[in-house]
Amino acid sequence: PTPVLVAIDGPAGSGKSSVSKAVASRLGYGFLDTGAAYRALAWLVLENGIDQNDADAVIRILADFDYEIGTDPAEYHVRVGANDVTDAIREPRVSAAVSAIARVPEVRSHLVELFRSIAAGVDKPGIVVEGRDITTVVAPDAPVRILLTASEEARMARRSAELQDDAAATAGAELKKRDQADSRVVDFLNAAEGVTTVDSTELNFAETVDAVIAVIAATD
Ligand code: C5P
Fold it and tell me: Which of 98, 175, 176 best tests ligand 1's pocket when mutated (most atoms within 8 Å of CB)?
């Protein structure tokens, strides 16, 4: 049978990745972090000394984009060619370059196809796929579609808690800038028709995971 697809979208710092991973672990589902694929491509672009704003050069490198994203929530890893880039794709230089790459239509259509085939082929009863356009473009017919939001204040506070004071201020500004750029390409700030909003502003991590699982349970 085709695995059940749980689509989760939301802005940066909404806790999407960690919540999705925890939900997948609890349900015995696979997990696909689509942002990691855009980040992996951005890493490859930077590694090759390509200007992220040179769309033609970015499109050319797509042909050589050999990447692997683990779909087992317990063994999450991202690889490009022979390099394990799991940590490198979180570096600020990658975060700063990724939006320019993600707005190239050829990049999006290429990755959307890959995400669909990864999701369809997972060897588990279901898969949680998270990103910005999963509920609207990658899997608009998914049985479960969730928009995970939190107030900007809450998102910044969570991101800052992971960092030192001055780094926190920079990260907050970066996050805001990235959301602005990304939301011009796909709308992940408003729930599309039929998408359930889970607002985690007043919830802690465990409560957010429970709220998402409750939405999934209510769907079958
Ligand atoms: O989720 P994360 O913040 O790691 O995503 C990194 C970047 O990848 C986003 O800022 C956005 O530019 C891009 N992205 C996207 N569509 C997705 C997931 C991520 O454009 N479905």
Answer: 98
